[in-house]
Amino acid sequence: MAYKDLQDFSRHLDEKSLLKRIKIDIDSELEITEIADRLSKQYGPALLFENVKVSPFPVRIHAMGACKRICTALGDIILSEGLLNALAHDGHKMGIDAAKKWTSEGHGRKWPEDIEMTKDMKELVSKRWAEYGIH
């Protein structure tokens, strides 16, 4: 199935219960990041934050964060067990992490340090986890 745009894809995820809508106020300053980090480690649902502080727009994250949603984006294809395992394998660098390896290959570029979430933010997200409604 081809999707007209990201909203069309999100509607499809919503219909298949692969998208969780978060209606409470969320801070765009690291709270969303901490939630996304935890979900990526759990292969959790895609999220749509509908009320983001200081933003007139909702924020959608993790839309392609699990094999099931990747298959859905590709038209509900069925991938072989071996290909699914390859997609789920954590051994290969992807995205910005893949570009970082270029320094050792002679492509010098200084990368910023990784952001470490503050203890206060981790505690806030843990405290509010039930409010988010993410299981």
From TrEMBL:
Gene3D superfamilies found in the cross-reference section: Single helix bin
A GO-annotated cellular component: cytosol
GO biological process assignments: ubiquinone biosynthetic process
Signal peptide boundaries: none
Coiled-coil zones: none
Membrane spanning residue stretches: none
PANTHER family registered for this protein in UniProt: 3-OCTAPRENYL-4-HYDROXYBENZOATE CARBOXY-LYASE-RELATED, FERULIC ACID DECARBOXYLASE 1
Protein name according to UniProt: 3-octaprenyl-4-hydroxybenzoate carboxy-lyase-like N-terminal domain-containing protein
Origin species: Geosporobacter ferrireducens
Phylogenetic classification of the source organism: Bacteria, Bacillati, Bacillota, Clostridia, Peptostreptococcales
